[in-house]
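Slide 14.
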Amino acid sequence: MKITTGAISMSEAVRDSFPVGAVVLDIETKTRMRRTSKIMMAVGILRTPEGAKRTEWLLENDGDEKDLVWSLMHFLENASTVITYNGTSFDIPVLKNKCEKYGIAFPENASQASTCGNLSSDISSHKSQGGMEKGISRKDGKIFRDLMREDRDLVTIFALPSRKLRDFGLLFPGDEDFLTADDAVCTMKLLGLDSVHTLLGGDYASAKTSCDEDHLFFAIETTYAFPGHLSISDGIYHLTMEGREAHLSVKIEDGRIRHYYPDVKNYVYLPLEGYAIHKSLADMVEKGHKEKAVRENCFSLVRITDRFLADAGQIRSYLSSVFTFLSSRK
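Slide 15: predicted structure.
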């Protein structure tokens, strides 16, 4: 068995989203058979206070697999969070099977890892509200974060060909490493996409508004940096992200803008009026003048006034409704 260790660089976006003490993990096996295949290689990237350190375990002889598994488990036992791509479906079950086979303790107990619900002091509570919790499972105190489960919405939002890890390289057009680096490094780079989760979850630092006759504009300072350039458009909205800045333009319709309701099933749409109302009010509307609301028409119309533009609470509520709509689009 050969073990190599070295420091690797991180972008600002990854630094924002990769907490100290967390580990990005990937294993490569001879086949895809979880119970019987040999582990040929493992890579762990540990986030340290100084940066990130990559360790690689390479199986040179079949008889070394037990030593590889023991060394890897020792490496993982103090990790606050283990981050993988599709790891809860493959990497973690494979490692559990190997630990059982060789009589090695799998490092899941609370004394060896963070307690349930405590990701890290470096991850604030509002970040979880931005969508990060979707890909997390907790087992006996250790926290496993599976980015494949977590980033399924991004595949739809950005129209990626599939949920394969390498397809996310389309979001990093200037990053040639995404084509040549190992899967652990690519998974680490995906952590920078937390900025999208948090923004679309309604979490941002500040927003400034301006408008012309046709559009309302928002200049948004994001909480976390985005690793590349992002653009989402439809007939009403245009959203861009780069670094710690996001810009949203909204089409103005007769002096008003759309404020979306997230609970579509509780609303009905009024075609003649061009907006939705809560179903508790629908009894007063004739049957032929209402229909079941869908995501695209489940909104009220908000008139743009100086009072609205000056109210930070209303702006945050409005942006949250738009981001929820954009993150759920098909």
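Speaker note: The chain has two domains: 2-197, 204-327.
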